[in-house]
Structures are given as structure tokens and as C-alpha cells.
Specification:
The structure holds 2 protein chains of 2 kinds. Chain A is mainly α. Chain A contains 12 helices and no strands. The chains are: A mainly alpha, B mainly alpha. Chains A and B meet through helix 1, helix 2, helix 3, helix 4 and helix 5 of A and helix 1, helix 3, helix 4, helix 5 and helix 6 of B.
Chain lengths: ~280, ~375
């Protein structure tokens, strides 16, 4: 038998490692508790849901709540999909063009224009809500999804412009100069060189805009009415009443959370890049 | 090519901001000549009356509650998120097996909307179930905290005392800054701070605050009697917000940590620095500018907080009301558009106070 000396530092090393992992695992369980509860409750028979048995597992899986919620949400899910697809694509395309102009072309007053565009990111939307409401009503766009598409496109422009500008700064100017010498103009350079190189930029921006717009509530609740509400408003109403049947809001929360969560789990790297774009400048 | 964006943002951001500020000086929604249910709007300029009402009128107590709530939400939400985010960053920085997995877990609430988060936590915080019932799973006694329905008020104060507190805090900050500048032998800045302090003292002593804060005739009314403070009902909302945002803080700090050159750490370790010392002497000082940006980002979130509170305790709950919610209820439910605009303008003012130093720091870092 070989006698292994068990040194004190080694001992403390193992203790700290064990403590770290225990903290992490406990922390993970605490973080996931709400997720467990929402799925658990959504799968229970409504008759079996009561406060005392929040943590008990369902006796048998009850999928009926999801059927009911999807029926109830039906048009709202479709509203959200229409809204998100249009506003995301529009703000991404315009943002990409802006980023291209800002990073590759000299414009008079750029040093003032760019910060002014960026500042648009920082305003709390309550600050423009009332004039916006007035404008939408006068333009006959109030109450519907087309109006909301316009709103999300416009207020998405600062962040999409910023992400694309920072992305295009990385493309070497020499590439564009070479193309310019060959006679390529503003649009040719964009469609033939810049756009094909922007795939990952588009992924970041599209994911970011998709999650933001899908999850947005303030514009949704103030600028749409009745049948044209997006899903977040539907969920808030479902959960807002006094005598709530909790199986429905819980199933509704799962349905409303599913698209962004799936995107996040598959493409989390790009999601994080979008997340950090608004907070840390290179 | 940039022109369409610039014109659109010019109208939808800057022109509309100006309009909001203008509406805040009118009586839109309160004008006696306004015919009911009419499309035509009658509004007249009434100066700062809306602001004066918000600060003093008994009917507007809800607004003062909302400011108080926002303050306490801001303080505890920012401290909590940063503390938890920093802890997670440091733990996950220890070459953990499964690091990516843990990161994905802790950041996942960020992909949810505040409405979803609010709905889930509202169910979790029911007084007789949810979190309160969790100990019973292990055979323990349930918790008895009332969460969102709690009527308790901690750290009570009355509205008329606020100028005193503000003056005191202002003095403390100036003294702190002055001492720091004095250590750098920067006597000009110390003199400047001293002048500011004297000015604050004069303003306070001359009774200027009494005029603008509480005009004397209403000093005995609601603002000085009704206790304000940290409503216990906010605790649950703060926890939900921390749950959602601390992963974001972790993401920012992790990105910042990756920016610290590896050899800097190794050199410190070679020099015999303990792990703890590497953090306190090298990593935390490098993180400081990011802590400041994070405070500003989270502060910004607290100023406009709307959907989370809406989903958790409803838009009409006086215990948890926030200015961002009042803009909605006053404007879109009660048609008091002018008062809603005044509240929105006050929120904007706070944002400016937070954002201007942030941009200043950012620009200075670029130079």
C-alpha cells in the first residue's frame, strides 16, 4: 500500500470545490422552481388545483388546459406572429442599410446623427405614448396590428442600426474600395458584398427583435383593441381577473413563453450578443 | 439613405417627447368646456399646475405613492440583481464543469416577457400556497408572509420630510466626493463641491423647498400625515424582477471578465496572490465601470417598470403602483391626458438624470 499524504491545502481545495458545486446546484433548483410550478400547474385537472397542493405532482396529465388556451388565444397567437414577422424583418432590413451607411460612407453631421439615433433606445416609451396614441388615431392606424407593426419597426431602428453598424465596422474597407474601383455603386456594394457577409448580424438582430416584440406589452395594451390584441395582452387578461382558474393562465404562460424560450435554447450565443449590444459598447 | 430613419425618429422620438412636455402644461382631459364623448379636444395652457397638483393635491396621493414605490423598487432591485449576478459570475469563473449549462439556466428567465414572469410569480406568491407552502413539502411549518397582499409599510416617513433627506443625501455625496478629490490634491474640485454644499444649505435655510415642495396652505394635509415607505407588497415583485434580471447582470459581468487579459491574472498568481486577492485587487476594480453601466441599465428598467407590476398586482393597486403604470391608468383609462403627460415628463426627467452621466462616462472612456 502506498501512503498518500493528504495535505491540508488539498483538503480545503476539495471542500471549496464541493461547496461551489452544491451552491450552483441548489441555485439552479431555486431558479427553476417557478418553471416547475408553471408546467406542473398547467398539467393538472382544474378541480385538483388548490393552494395547499401547489407542489404536488398532477395525479394524471391533463392536457385539456392547453387545448382551451390555444382556442382562447387562437387569433391572438396569429396577431403576434403577423406582428413579429413583419416588424422584425422591416426593422432588420432598414437597420442593416443604416448600419452600412453609417460605417462605410461619409455623411455630413454623422457625429450628431448617430448619437441622436442611439438616444432613441433610452427613452421610456411612456414618454411618447400619448402623442403616439393621438398620431395613430389621426392616421386611422389605432387599434390594429398594422399600426403596431409600424410602431415596433420605428422604435426598433436604434438598436438594429447600432448592432449592424458595429458589425459592419469589422468588414475591411479595402474590400469595398476594390469593388468601388471596379465600378460598383452604393447598392451593388451592399447587395454583392455587405449583405452576403451579414448573415450572423441578421441572426443576432432578428432574434433580438423577435424576442423583444413578442414579449412587448406597453404598446400592445395601449394601441390595440379587442380582436387585434397580441398574446401578451391576452395572457394579462387571462390572469388578471379575481377568481382565476389557475390552470389556464399557467398553460397560457407556457404557450406565450415557448417561442422565445425555444429560440433562446437553440441560439443562445446570438441571443446573448443581442442582449449585450445594448449595454456594452466595444 | 439615412434620411428616412432620421426623419421617423425625429418625429416619433423627439417631436413626441416635446409634445408630451407641452401637454403636461395643459388641462387636456380636465377642461370644463370639453364636451363629453367628443372627438374634438379642448385644451388650454395652465402652466405648471399639473405638477403642483401632483406634488400637493390630496387626490394625487397615488402619484406620490408611486414615486416612493419606484424608489424602493430601484434600490433593492439594483442591489439584489447586482449582488446575485456578481456571485454567479464569480462562481462560474472557477473552471466549473458544465459552465455553459449553468449559464443557460441562469440566463433563461431573460427570454421570458415580464408578463409571463409576473403571471407565474403571482401564482407562486399566493398567501396560502406557492412559496409559502414550500416548507410543507419537507414537513416544516408554512411561511406566513402575505406577499402581494401585505399591508405592512417599512421604513416609514412623511412626504414633507423629503427635502430634508434629499439635502442630507446631497451633503453626504458631496462630502464623499470632496474627500476623494482632496486625496488627489485636486483643490479646485473640492472648492467647487464646497460651493455646491453651501448653495444647498442656503436653498434649504431660505425655505425655498417649502415653497416648491409643499405650498404652505396644504402642509397640514395628506402629504405630511399619511405615512409613505417601503410597502411590503413590493417584496415579491422585487424578487421576481431579480429572478428575471440577475442572469443578465451575470452576462454583462462575464463579458467584462473575458476582457481582462489572462496573463494579468496569472502574473498575480505567480506573485503569490491568493485567489481571493486576485479578485479584490485585480478583477473587481476592472469590473467597476461595468457595475456603473449595470446600475444605470437596471435603474432605467426600474424607472419605466410597467408590465411586471401590471401582471403581478394589477394596474390599480395603491401599494405597488409605479409612475409608469399611472401614465397608463390616468391617460388611457381616465382620459386625464395632461396629468399623465406630467407624470411621463417627471419619469423622463429621472431618465435624463441617469442617462446623462452614463453617456458622459461612455464618452470619457472612448477618449
Amino acid at each position: 500500500m502506498i501512503d498518500i499524504p493528504f495535505s491540508r491545502t488539498k483538503f480545503w481545495h476539495y471542500i471549496t470545490r464541493a461547496a461551489l458545486y452544491i451552491t450552483l446546484i441548489v441555485g439552479m433548483f431555486i431558479f427553476m422552481l417557478p418553471i416547475f410550478v408553471v408546467i406542473n400547474t398547467s398539467l393538472k385537472d382544474p378541480a385538483a388545483i388548490n393552494l395547499a397542493t401547489t407542489w404536488a405532482l398532477p395525479a394524471q396529465l391533463h392536457w385539456q388546459s392547453y387545448v382551451e388556451v390555444i382556442e382562447e388565444f387562437g387569433p391572438r397567437i396569429w396577431n403576434s406572429i403577423t406582428l413579429v414577422t413583419n416588424a422584425t424583418l422591416l426593422s432588420a432590413i432598414i437597420g442593416s442599410l443604416n448600419g452600412y451607411v453609417l460605417s462605410k460612407w461619409r455623411i455630413a453631421g454623422e457625429r450628431i446623427l448617430f448619437p441622436l439615433i442611439l438616444l432613441g433606445m433610452f427613452i421610456p416609451y411612456q414618454g411618447i405614448l400619448i402623442p403616439l396614441f393621438e398620431f395613430m388615431r389621426d392616421a386611422r392606424l389605432y387599434g390594429g396590428i398594422p399600426g403596431l407593426i409600424i410602431i415596433h419597426t420605428i422604435y426598433g431602428l436604434p438598436i438594429t442600426t447600432l448592432i449592424f453598424r458595429n458589425f459592419y465596422v469589422e468588414i475591411p474597407d479595402e474590400m469595398l474600395e476594390a469593388a468601388a474601383i471596379d465600378g460598383a455603386g452604393f447598392w451593388e456594394i451592399y447587395t454583392q458584398i455587405v449583405f452576403p457577409l451579414s448573415v450572423s448580424g441578421f441572426v443576432v438582430v432578428i432574434i433580438w427583435q423577435f424576442t423583444q416584440i413578442w414579449n412587448e406589452f406597453l404598446f400592445a395594451v395601449t394601441m390595440t383593441t379587442g380582436a387585434s390584441e397580441p398574446i401578451t395582452v391576452g395572457l394579462a387578461q387571462l390572469a388578471g381577473g379575481q377568481a382565476v382558474h389557475w390552470n389556464l393562465p399557467m398553460a397560457g404562460a407556457v404557450v406565450a413563453a415557448l417561442p422565445p424560450i425555444v429560440v433562446y435554447l437553440i441560439l443562445s450565443r446570438y441571443f446573448i450578443r443581442g442582449l449585450l449590444a445594448g449595454s456594452i459598447k466595444a | 439613405m439615412l434620411m428616412p430613419t432620421f426623419i421617423l425618429l425625429g418625429i416619433f422620438v423627439y417631436f413626441f417627447l416635446g409634445k408630451t412636455i407641452y401637454y403636461s402644461t395643459t388641462d387636456w382631459g380636465e377642461n370644463p368646456a370639453q364636451p363629453a364623448l367628443s372627438e374634438t379636444v379642448i385644451r388650454e395652457n395652465i402652466g405648471f399646475e399639473n405638477y403642483q397638483n401632483l406634488m400637493t393635491d390630496i387626490i394625487q396621493a397615488m402619484f406620490r405613492n408611486s414615486l416612493t414605490n419606484m424608489f424602493f423598487f430601484f434600490v433593492f432591485f439594483v442591489i439584489g440583481s447586482i449582488a446575485l449576478g456578481l456571485l454567479l459570475t464569480i462562481i462560474l469563473d472557477q473552471k466549473i464543469v458544465g459552465e455553459t449549462f449553468f449559464r443557460t439556466v441562469f440566463l433563461s428567465p431573460m427570454a421570458l416577457s415580464f408578463v409571463v414572469t409576473g403571471t407565474i410569480w403571482r401564482w407562486l406568491l399566493q398567501p396560502d400556497g406557492g412559496l409559502n407552502a414550500l416548507p410543507t413539502v419537507f414537513g416544516l411549518e408554512p411561511f406566513r408572509f402575505n406577499w402581494l397582499n401585505s399591508q405592512e409599510i417599512w421604513l416609514q416617513f412623511t412626504w414633507d420630510k423629503v427635502p430634508q433627506y434629499l439635502t442630507f443625501v446631497g451633503f453626504a455625496i458631496l462630502a464623499f466626493l470632496a474627500v476623494r478629490r482632496a486625496l488627489h490634491q485636486d483643490w479646485r474640485s473640492v472648492g467647487f463641491m464646497g460651493t455646491l454644499a453651501v448653495m444647498m444649505l442656503i436653498i434649504f435655510a431660505a425655505g425655498v423647498w417649502d415653497r416648491i415642495w409643499l405650498p404652505l396652505d396644504v402642509a397640514e394635509a395628506e402629504p405630511s400625515i399619511a405615512p409613505k415607505g417601503f410597502n411590503a407588497a413590493l417584496v415579491g415583485i422585487i424578487i421576481a424582477a431579480i429572478w428575471q434580471m440577475s442572469g443578465y447582470v451575470m452576462a454583462i459581468f462575464t463579458a467584462a471578465l473575458r476582457g481582462i487579459p489572462e496573463d494579468l491574472r496569472e502574473a498575480a498568481q505567480v506573485d503569490g496572490c491568493s485567489n481571493l486577492k486576485v479578485y479584490t485587487h485585480i478583477i473587481l476594480p476592472q469590473l467597476r465601470p461595468f457595475v456603473i453601466s449595470t446600475i444605470i441599465i437596471l435603474g432605467h428598467t426600474s424607472l419605466k417598470i410597467f408590465d411586471l407590476v401590471f401582471a403581478m398586482s394589477g394596474p390599480d393597486n395603491a401599494r405597488t403602483v409605479m409612475p409608469g403604470i399611472l401614465v397608463y391608468t390616468k391617460g388611457f383609462r381616465q382620459n386625464s391626458f395632461a396629468q399623465a403627460s406630467a407624470i411621463a415628463t417627471i419619469v423622463l426627467l429621472f431618465v435624463v438624470i441617469i442617462i446623462v452621466p452614463y453617456l458622459y462616462i461612455q464618452l470619457r472612456r472612448h477618449d
